[in-house]
C-alpha cells in the first residue's frame, strides 16, 4: 500500500522540477520602465513590510479563541465540545471573509477594507470581552473571524499586485504573518491571562487592532500605476492562453484542490494533541509539536516563495503537496517520541508553502482586476478543507478507534490535490512570448 501511494508523490516532485520557467519581465521600452519603477521597487518592499506588520496584529483573531478556550470553558462551566463551538464559528467567519472582503478590495482598495476590518475587530473583541454566555461569544467570534480574514487572502492579493519578479517571496512573507501571529500572540497574552483573565486579554486585542492597523492602513493608499498593472495583466494573459482551461474552470479546479490539500493538512494540525495523548505522551507534548509545525511552516512558506519565483506557482504547489503526502505516510508507523518530533517538523516544512501558492497561481493565470475575489474564493475553500478535515478525522477516529484510518483519509484527499495539480501542469504549454521578453530585457 505504501509503495502505491509514495510512488505518485515522488513522481509529482520529479515532474514539477522539469517545468522551470523564467520569471516574466517586460521588454525594454517606455511602458516597461514604468513597470519596473513600480513593481519590485523600494516602495513595494516598504508596502510588504507594512502588510506583514498589519498581518501580525490582525491575524490574532484566528488564534485568540484557542488561547482563551480553557479559561472560557471554566468560567461558563461547559464541556470541551461546547467550548470548541466559538472556534468553529471563527473559522466559518474567516472562510466567508476571505471571499467577501476580497471582492471589496477589488472594488475599493485595501485601505478602506482594512480600516473597516480594524474597527470590526475592535468592536468584535470588545463585545466578546463582555459576552454573558457561550451563544453570544460564538456569534461575536464569527464576526471576529470574518474581519480577521482581511489580513489573509485580501492582504496577500493586494501585495501580489506590487511584485512581478519576486511575487512568490512577497506572497510567502505576507502569508507567514498568519503563522507568526499564532506563535507570538500567546506569549504576549500569557501574563494578562494569568493576572486579569481572558476578558482583559480581549480588551487589549481590541485596542491594539484599532491603534496599530488603522494608521498603517492609511499608508497603503497608493495604487499600482496603470502601466504596471497592464504589464502584469499582459503576462497573466499569456500564461492563461497556455493552459487549456477557462478562468472559471481553473478557479473551480483550484478550489477543489484547496479542499483536498487542507483536509489532509488538518489531520496533524488539529489532532496532534489527541494523537499524542492516545500514545501516552499527553497534550503538552502535542502542543509543542504543533508549535514546531507552525515554525516549520513559516520556513516552508519563505522557501516556497523563492521556489515559486523560479519554477512558478503550480510546480511549487505540486512539490509541497507531494512532500506533505510523504510526511503523512511517515506518521503511520511512527510512535516514538523523538521520531514524532522529527516527523512533525518534516510535516511543517512540507505544508507551509502550499496555501500561499494558490494566490501565486491565481495571479499568474487570472486577471488582476478579480485577484481579490479569486484569491479569496480559493482561500475560502482551503479554510473549508481545514474545517471539514478536522471534523472528518474525529469522526473516523470515533468510528474506528484509531487515527490510522484518519491519516489514510488525509493521504487520499492529498492525492486528489496532486492529481489536479498534475492535470493543470500537463495541460499548460510553454509561454514563449514571456520568455522572449525576458531574454530581450536581459540583453
Which properties best describe this structure?
443 residues, mainly alpha, Growth Hormone, Chain: A, 2 domains, 20 helices, 0% strand, disordered N terminus, disordered C terminus
Could you characterize what this model shows?
This protein has 20 helices and no strands. It is mainly alpha-helical and 443 residues long. Helix 1 (2-17) packs antiparallel against helix 15, helix 10 (167-195) packs antiparallel against helix 17 (354-365) and helix 15 (313-331) packs antiparallel against helix 19 (404-426). The longest helix is centred in the middle third of the chain and has 32 residues, at 247-278. The chain is globular.
Short précis:
The protein has 443 residues and is mainly alpha-helical.
The tally of strands reads 0
Strand content: under 5%
The sequence of SSEs as H and E is HHHHHHHHHHHHHHHHHHHH
Helix content: over 70%
Give unreliable regions as ranges. Answer: 1-7, 17-36, 431-443
- Broad CATH class of the largest domain: Mainly Alpha
Q: Helix- and strand-based class?
A: mainly alpha
User: How many discrete structural domains?
Assistant: 2
Integer average pLDDT: 80
**What is the CATH superfamily of the largest domain?**
MFS general substrate transporter like domains
The major sheet is characterized as:
none
Silhouette: globular
CATH fold naming of the largest domain? Growth Hormone, Chain: A
User: How many helices in DSSP terms?
Assistant: 20
Second rung of CATH, namely the architecture of the largest domain: Up-down Bundle
Alpha-carbon distance between the two ends: 52 Å
Q: Evaluate the radius of gyration.
A: 22 Å
Amino acid at each position: 500500500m505504501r509503495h502505491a501511494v509514495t510512488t505518485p508523490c515522488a513522481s509529482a516532485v520529479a515532474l514539477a522540477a522539469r517545468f522551470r520557467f523564467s520569471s516574466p519581465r517586460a521588454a525594454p521600452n517606455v511602458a516597461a520602465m514604468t513597470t519596473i519603477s513600480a513593481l519590485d521597487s523600494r516602495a513595494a518592499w516598504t508596502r510588504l513590510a507594512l502588510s506583514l506588520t498589519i498581518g501580525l496584529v490582525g491575524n490574532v483573531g484566528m488564534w485568540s479563541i484557542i488561547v482563551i478556550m480553557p479559561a472560557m470553558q471554566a468560567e461558563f462551566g461547559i464541556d470541551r465540545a461546547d467550548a470548541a463551538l466559538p472556534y468553529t464559528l471563527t473559522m466559518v467567519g474567516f472562510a466567508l471573509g476571505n471571499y467577501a472582503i476580497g471582492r471589496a478590495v477589488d472594488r475599493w482598495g485595501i485601505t478602506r477594507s482594512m480600516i473597516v476590518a480594524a474597527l470590526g475587530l475592535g468592536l468584535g473583541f470588545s463585545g466578546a470581552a463582555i459576552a454573558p454566555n457561550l451563544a453570544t461569544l460564538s456569534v461575536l467570534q464569527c464576526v471576529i473571524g470574518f474581519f480577521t480574514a482581511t489580513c489573509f487572502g485580501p492582504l496577500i492579493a493586494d501585495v501580489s499586485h506590487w511584485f512581478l519578479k519576486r511575487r512568490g517571496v512577497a506572497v510567502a512573507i505576507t502569508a507567514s504573518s498568519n503563522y507568526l501571529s499564532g506563535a507570538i500572540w500567546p506569549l504576549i497574552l500569557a501574563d494578562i491571562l494569568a493576572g486579569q483573565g481572558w476578558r482583559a486579554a480581549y480588551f487589549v486585542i481590541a485596542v491594539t487592532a484599532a491603534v496599530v492597523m488603522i494608521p498603517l492602513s492609511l499608508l497603503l493608499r497608493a495604487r499600482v500605476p496603470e502601466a504596471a498593472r497592464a504589464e502584469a495583466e499582459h503576462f497573466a494573459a499569456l500564461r492563461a492562453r497556455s493552459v487549456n482551461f477557462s478562468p472559471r474552470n481553473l478557479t473551480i479546479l483550484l478550489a477543489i484542490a484547496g479542499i483536498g490539500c487542507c483536509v489532509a493538512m488538518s489531520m496533524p494540525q488539529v489532532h496532534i494533541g489527541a494523537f499524542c495523548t492516545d500514545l501516552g505522551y499527553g497534550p503538552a507534548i502535542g502542543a509543542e509539536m504543533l508549535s514546531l509545525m507552525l515554525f516549520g511552516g513559516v520556513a516552508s512558506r519563505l522557501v516556497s516563495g523563492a521556489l515559486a519565483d523560479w519554477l512558478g506557482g503550480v510546480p511549487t504547489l505540486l512539490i509541497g503537496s507531494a512532500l506533505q503526502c510523504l510526511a503523512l505516510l511517515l506518521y503511520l508507523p511512527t510512535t516514538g517520541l523523538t521520531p514524532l518530533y522529527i516527523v512533525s517538523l518534516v510535516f511543517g516544512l512540507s505544508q507551509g508553502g502550499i496555501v500561499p501558492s494558490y494566490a501565486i497561481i491565481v495571479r499568474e493565470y487570472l486577471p488582476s482586476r478579480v485577484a481579490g475575489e479569486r484569491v479569496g474564493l480559493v482561500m475560502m475553500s482551503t479554510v473549508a478543507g481545514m474545517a471539514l478535515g478536522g471534523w472528518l478525522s474525529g469522526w473516523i477516529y470515533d468510528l474506528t478507534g484509531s487515527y490510522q484510518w484518519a491519516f489514510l483519509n488525509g493521504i487520499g484527499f492529498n492525492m486528489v490535490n496532486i492529481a489536479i495539480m498534475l492535470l493543470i501542469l500537463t495541460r499548460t504549454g510553454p509561454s514563449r512570448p514571456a520568455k522572449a521578453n525576458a531574454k530581450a530585457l536581459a540583453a
